Amino acid sequence: MTRWTTGTAVTTEPESRDASSDSHGFSRRRLIASAAAAGGTGVVGAVAGFGVGRSGADGRAEAAPSRDLSGANGPVTEPFYAPHQSGVETPPQAHAHFLALTLKPGINAAEVVRWLRLLTADAAALTQGSGPLADSEPELAHDPARLTITFGFGRGLVKLAGAKAVPIWLGPLEKFPIDDLDPDRCTGDLLLQICGDDPLTLAHARRMLWKDSRTFAEVAWQRDGFRRSYGSKAEGKTQRNLFGQLDGTANPGSGSEDFARIIWGQGTGREDAVYSARGEPPDDLGAHLPEWMRGGTTLVLRDIAMNLDTWDKADRPAREFATGRTLDQGAPLSGTDEFDTPDFTAVDKRGLTKISAASHVARARDGLGPETQIHRRTFNYETGAGEGAGLLFASFQADIDRQFLPIQRRLAEVDLLNEWTTPIGSTVWAIPPGITEGEYIGQSLFEG
To answer: What percentage of the chain's residues is helix, strand, coil (to nearest 5)?
Structure first.
């Protein structure tokens, strides 16, 4: 029986970086100089490292909330069979594991199809709360807790279907001056993005999928990520990253015409479409995708290290000046609410612009057209006390060249947040379309 269902999504501000000057003629030196002049103490505190600021308790007196003792989220499932893969438009779960695999030497197309059939069958079972056929601990699968398993194809895997099937954009991004990439975190032929609200369920799913894969592939790299635990915040609330910033304010809304065009690359044709303040995005962003990807999208996955120790040395005005938003509400410095449209011309009592032209929000948004938007699905990570910390920045968009790269190039050229962040991993993936029961992920590529 064919079952079609759609997922859902969130919101965020594009966060990437950039390598060349933009159409406004900004120079890196001029922008940072003007930022220093406008920001005063704030930016000095940010770069020089004094004026440590910590926010105290806000003094709210609230009634003690009651705990959920029923396990209400355990049985909740997300669809596996659908026009689009789950895990893109799906509201982000609390936990994620990104597992990149490299094909073993000599693996051919027929073997890859066998592997994908096996992975598809087991992923379908796991996401619906059933153990796969070879699962010796099926009880661990019985509480899916919104488990999703999203497949991404790298250049090496797609090439096995024929050189003509490989899109030009499917490969490493251009080199950006802010990058300090670890080559071991920039490879892979197949990506499994495994997300869920229960870490035990997720760990079990990862183990089952790895058992399916070890005959065909080796681990290229892997990384765990997390957000707020299920129930900590109401659904739809923007998550915070390890800098304490609200991370995900300007994403296109789930189920919207914006999302259909910006991520899936094609409009729905609805007559009552409502667009964000950015304006109406074009209806052809997915026109360049190969036929086998129709109903799919692209993913740029960036592993961004965050220097929490130096961030601690910046005072609150410096942090807000660098981002262009307040830390508590996430409002643009020209407004009062998280979802206020930033006004990049607004000035303060001194006649200085409230949002610096070198701030993150200005560089990611000011002057860019409605087509230059992405959907960011981010997860925090920390490897231990005194060790690494950062952000797994998953950027979904229909067209990397028209949507992701214009933002990335501007941010790499100038962005005050670059003082505390460094990209250390970067991969590009083709996200194939969803499937119906009886099909396997990638069937449109190998049998289309």
So the answer is: 25, 15, 55
Locate 424 and state its tokens. Answer: 């250390």
C-beta of residue 424 within 8 angstroms of C-beta of residue 389 = no
Q: 13: pLDDT confidence band, cut at 50, 70 and 90?
A: very low
Q: Scan for tokens 């001056």, then name that residue.
A: 177
CB 87 within 8 A of CB 150: yes
CB 430 within 8 A of CB 188: no
What is the rounded distance in angstroms from the CA atom of residue 136 to the CA atom of residue 366?
A: 54
Question: Cα dist. 190→369, 400, 406, 431 in Å?
Answer: 33, 19, 26, 10
**Residue whose pair of structure tokens reads 């029986």 in the numeric block:** 1
What are the CB-based long-range contacts (under 8 Å, 24+) for 337-341?
338/238, 338/246, 338/249, 339/249, 341/277
Cα distance between residue 343 and residue 365, in whole Å: 11
pLDDT for 51 equals 38
Please state, in angstroms and as integers, the Cα–Cα distance from residue 327 to each residue in 243, 351, 385, following that order.
Answer: 9, 23, 24
For the residues of 355-407, what is the DSSP string, one character each? S-TTSHHHHHHTT--TTS--EEEEEEEE-STTS-EEEEEEEEES-IIIIIHHH
Q: Which sequence spans correspond to the domains of the chain? A: 82-446
Calculated CA dihedral for residues 60, 66, 68, 70, nearest 10 degrees: -170
| Burial grade of 285 (CB within 10 A; 0-12, 13-18, 19 or more) | buried
Report the CATH fold assignment for 82-446.
Alpha-Beta Plaits (3.30.70)
Beta carbons of 389 and 306 less than 8 angstroms apart: yes
User: Which amino acid does the sequence have at 13?
Assistant: E
Q: Which of 6-10, 316-320, 389-393, 413-417 has the lowest mean pLDDT?
A: 6-10
* Contact present, 344 and 206 (Cβ < 8 Å): no
Structure tokens at 50: 């004094």
Residues contacting 250, CB < 8 A, separation 6+: 11, 12, 13, 14, 276, 365, 373
- If one compares 361 and 67, the residue with the highest pLDDT of the two is 361
Please report the DSSP string for 271-310 in residue order: TT----TT-PPPS-TTTTS-GGGTT-EEEEEEEEEE-HHH
DSSP letter, residue 186: S
Give residues with Cβ within 8 angstroms of 164, minimum separation 6: none
Nearest partner of 260 among 5, 86, 6, judged by Cα: 6
Residue 281 near residue 261 (C-beta atoms within 8 A): yes
Q: How far apart are CA 37 and CA 198, in angstroms?
A: 48
To the question of pTM greater than 0.85 for the whole model, the response is yes
